[in-house]
Design brief:
Helix 9 links the parallel strand 7 and strand 8. The chain is built from 10 helices and 8 strands.
Length: 252
């Protein structure tokens, strides 16, 4: 069966026990369970267990923001894919641009994390995207192509992978990529996936970068956009619900 449109909310390093409980309660009151979209909430690690309990029987899925490539050991401060799966995560974001730029995460590390996540039954959401300098130099396609080449394990398929295209210059800036640019890069991603491995049809490709209720419709309607990865607007229940609502016209 085709995957329904995916709306994933990356809370980043935000919210505490009380404020996150209120957010989930507001989402439930707002009718999130009735949505035909696949809704994924991605809280910080401290909240995963609590949110897992709160979303039982709601149809909402749980994701984490990162994992370590090893399953256990002397890696102070790190969290493994096995640990995430054990508290109820279904998904894990890997290679978010903030991890790459602020914490020096490399493509090789992301690939190792991807293997580990899949081994533990998690679906990785692998992020790719160019910075402004790369875009202005006409290098967006090459940057994204190289990231895909080097981050993805060999046997990627729709059962073990989601890609998120997040142009760095659009994250948290209020600037969104134009529909034509999104289409161009998504089709490049699709072709790169196909050249790598024939069985990649149906891998969802999400767009992320200043997605808001005001621009979600024109992004979600694009043919090769399988959903959106939302940052700031996912912390506001009204905005997140409004974005989810825009999927009602999107076919599977
Ligand atoms: P914003 O929606 O706040 O731009 O963040 C996007 C993002 O980084 C999601 O992972």
């Amino acid at each position: 069966m085709a995957t329904p449109p995916i709306i994933a909310g990356n809370w980043k390093m935000n919210l505490l026990l009380e404020s996150s409980t209120k957010l989930i309660s507001d989402l439930k009151k707002g009718g999130i369970s009735k949505s035909r979209a696949r809704v994924i909430v991605i809280p910080p690690a401290t909240l995963l267990s609590s949110i897992a309990d709160q979303i039982k029987n709601t149809g909402i899925f749980l994701g984490a923001q990162n994992c370590h490539e090893e399953l256990k050991g002397a890696f102070t401060g790190e969290v493994s894919a096995e640990m995430l799966a054990s508290v109820g995560c279904n998904y894990v974001i890997l290679g978010h641009s903030e991890r790459r730029t602020l914490f020096g995460e490399t493509n090789a590390q992301i690939k190792a994390k991807m293997s580990s996540a899949i081994k533990c039954g998690l679906t990785p959401i692998v992020c790719v995207g160019e910075n402004l300098r790369q875009r202005e130099a006409g290098g967006a396609m090459d940057t994204v192509g190289k990231q895909l080449e080097e981050c993805l394990i060999d046997k990627v398929s729709k059962d073990n992978c989601i890609i998120a295209y997040e142009p760095i210059w659009a994250i948290g800036t209020g600037q969104t990529a134009e529909p034509d640019d999104i289409e161009e890069i998504h089709s490049h991603i699709r072709n790169t996936l196909k050249a790598k491995e024939p069985n990649t049809d149906g891998i969802p490709i999400l767009y992320g970068g200043s997605v808001k209720p005001e621009n979600a419709s024109k992004i979600l309607v694009l043919p090769d956009v399988g959903g959106v990865l939302v940052g700031g607007a996912s912390l506001n229940p009204k905005d997140f619900l409004a974005i989810i609502d825009k999927t009602s016209g999107k076919s599977e």
